[in-house]
């Protein structure tokens, strides 16, 4: 069980690594969704 004084890296190294990789991915890349780039005609 994860206690208040523990951090994720100490509890689950694989989970911590995955979170770190996702953080880097989000900081280094931009994702555009075409449907959000158009305004509604209504």
From TrEMBL:
Top EC category: transferase
Domain Serine hydroxymethyltransferase-like, residue spans: 9-40
Signal peptide: none
SUPFAM superfamilies: PLP-dependent transferases
UniProt GO BP: methylation
E.C. no: 2.1.2.1
A molecular function GO annotation: glycine hydroxymethyltransferase activity
Keywords carried by this UniProt record: Methyltransferase, Transferase
Pfam families reported for this sequence: SHMT
Family annotation (InterPro entries): PyrdxlP-dep_Trfase, SHMT-like_dom
Chaperone keyword on record: no
Record protein name field: Serine hydroxymethyltransferase
């Amino acid at each position: 069980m994860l206690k208040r004084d523990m951090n994720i890296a100490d509890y689950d190294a694989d989970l911590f690594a995955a979170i770190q990789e996702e953080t880097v991915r989000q900081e280094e890349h931009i994702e555009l969704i075409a449907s959000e780039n158009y305004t509604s005609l209504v």
